[in-house]
# Entry
Amino acid sequence: MTLARTGGGAGPDWGAYVLAYTSTLQPDGSRAALVVATVPDDPMLDPAWGLRLAPTHWSDPGSARRPVWEYATAAAPPKGATEPAGRWEQHLAVYLLTAALAPRLIPTRTSVDLPTAAWEAALDRTVHLDVPHAGHTRIQIGRLTACTPKENPT
# Structure
């Protein structure tokens, strides 16, 4: 699991989120992405991970208090006035996946990789993609409810 602080782009007074990303292989051979959110001041997040650092160009100060789906809606407006509802949902899910996946590919000072973390999430929605994105055919979105690092086995 990779955790990263984000939040820029939605406008003033949104605050920051911590997005967690992981990917799982499904029984049919496809991949599903899990993108779940919490806030930088959540007590389950270890301050040593650096997710509470000062805001950057990509991360607003403070902690967000609105659902991450609302953030995606504000940060990634529709490309056309009449984008179909199903396509719009895919657009927002891909936006969140891209924001959560980028720090896995290029780590930043406000991201941490926890490959052996024990975590729990409450899922709000699953979005099936018409066209795979970064190898994923569906994206599960929700809230991170627990995250505890474990020691790597030696």
